[in-house]
Amino acid sequence: MTSATMSAPISHELHAKAEAMSLPAEEPTHVEGLSMVVFSGDLDKVLAAFIIANGAAAMDLPVSMFFTFWGLNVLRRGGHIKVAKKKTTMESMFGAMMPNGPAGLQLSKLKMGGLGTRLIKREMAKKHVDDLAHLIRSAQEQGVRFIACTMSMDLMGIRKEELIDGLTFGNVGSFIDAADRSRMTLFI
To answer: I need a labelling partner for 104 at 20 to 30 A (CA). Which of 7, 20, 71, 187 fits?
Structure first.
């Protein structure tokens, strides 16, 4: 008996078992889209995250971005924001040490006292590459879902009124749900 003839009965048996175990047609198992954890607050990493998100959204893929820890700084409004509830000393210190929004982010490498960040921004403008603020607006306009991690917000003393409009607030379960419905998941 050749290996081809031996495998035919086994293949037929496996096929029959698979058909018997298959889900009903009305329960779709297809997942699509992109989910992303934005953990970093480094300009170059956040730029990459938003370029990928905008590209996926332009291809009509649903995109969810979960902002946690230093990634929350991307969503902060620039300037001083008056908050309803007084912050603790530690929360105020975190707020003072972290960048306020996209304009305050620095490169992860070659910082050179802020010179590296200024140089990359100048090169981006010269070469007509959208800046981070534009990429954020574009992602929102394309329906990218931004999820702000409430646990990180609480830990770092970031209040909802300090963040940009159009956000969803959730915990890690919100991200897990988005990731479970996606075919691609990135951690940046």
So the answer is: 187
Give the torsion sign (CA, 68, 74, 80, 81): negative
Residue 181 to residue 188: CA distance in whole angstroms: 19
| Tokens found for residue 10 | 């086994």
Domain 33-187 class, CATH top level: alpha beta
Residue-range domain boundaries for the chain: 33-187
pLDDT for 117-129, tens place per residue? Answer: 889 899 999 999 9
Can you tell me the distance from the alpha carbon of 60 to that of 82, in angstroms, rounded to the nearest whole number? 38
- Could you tell me the pTM of the whole model? 0.79
CA 165 to chain centre: 16
Reduced to 3 states (helix: H, G, I; strand: E, B; else coil), residue 124 is helix
CB 70 within 8 A of CB 156: no
Residue with tokens 């300037």: 79
d(CA 89, CA 181): 40
